[in-house]
Amino acid sequence: MWEITFNSSNNSKRVAIGAIKSLFSFAKELGVISSNLGILVKSPKAKNRLAERILNEEEVQRVISNTTTERDRTLVRLLYFAGLRVSELCALKWRDLQPRGDAGQITVFGKGDKTRTVLVTKGVWRSLQDLKNNARKDDPVFVSGKGGHLSRSMVFHIVKDAAKRAGIDGNVSPHWLRHSHASHSLDRGAPIHLLQKTLGHSSVAITEMYLHARPTDSSGLYLPDDE
Questions:
Q1: What average pLDDT does the segment 198-226 reach?
Q2: 181 carries an active-site annotation
Q3: Which of 28, 31, 32, 122 has its CA 20 to 30 A from that of 172?
Q4: Is 175 in the active site?
Q5: In the predicted structure, residue 163 carries a pLDDT above the cut 80
Q6: Are 76 and 124 in contact (CB under 8 A)?
Q7: Can you give the pLDDT at residue 99?
């Protein structure tokens, strides 16, 4: 087994090793080498930092309150309440939104080319309808300054700036809102299989990582503490 030494962090090691493995794979495809030796190279395991990327409910509300336009406020609310990936949000067209009583549903084309339907609350649905004006079915829900779909980078900018104004430390991104959706819904009793379906995870094992990141109990809480 090979051993590669770097004087750097595990993240840097994983990036470097990933590049090496990709190079070997590409060389094998081209026929430059007869076997892919890159499969023998192991990447260092990463510490799971998911818990650091989960906002509490009060922080989520502060992010929402610190947006500067109704469009941005609705965008952040939808990221949180629907648990969308940023790419899924940016791709939304008005034809993907359908009323459901006083609330609504969104058809999402997600990771792995899979389609799922997500229900949204009455408040989020009203906010979305307030943005529609005279938009046609194939128009984007969230419009850029040039009239097309809002870019991923702009969504990151909107969320990061709102979090900064809210006084929240860390490089807050749209995915933090998806993490927070998962954690908070589990805390409030949502079944894990429902959360898996809502988030579009391929396996419930992926969804279970939120149970480990925000446990509801721990053995240390059963020990006496006099302080």
A1: 74
A2: no
A3: 122
A4: yes
A5: yes
A6: no
A7: 95
Query: Catalytic: 210?
Result: yes
Catalytic residue among 73, 77, 201, 214: 201
- Over the stretch 101-121, which tens digit does the pLDDT of each residue have? 999 999 998 887 889 999 999
Beta-bridged to residue 100, according to DSSP, are: 103
User: Which tokens in the block code for residue 73?
Assistant: 């406020």
Interval 7-31: pLDDT, tens: 455 556 666 667 777 777 877 788 8
User: Cα–Cα distances in Å, from 27 out to 4, 18, 20, 33, 34?
Assistant: 20, 14, 11, 6, 9
Does the active-site annotation cover 222?
no
The residue from 21, 77, 80, 210 that is catalytic is 210
Task: Indicate if 49 belongs to the active site.
Answer: no
Helix axes 174-187, 192-199, angle to 10 degrees: 160
User: Which of 85, 179, 181, 184 is flagged as catalytic?
Assistant: 85
Are 114 and 104 a contacting pair, CB within 8 Å?
no
Nearest to 38 by CA among 12, 19, 14: 19
Q: Of the listed 111, 114, 132, 212, which one is catalytic? A: 111
Active site residue 80: no
- What's the average model confidence in pLDDT over 160-188? 92
Instruction: Kindly name the residue from 77, 178, 179, 181 that is annotated as catalytic.
Output: 178
- Would you say 46 and 209 are in contact if contact means Cβ atoms under 8 Å apart? no
Residue in 71, 116, 175, 197 annotated catalytic: 175
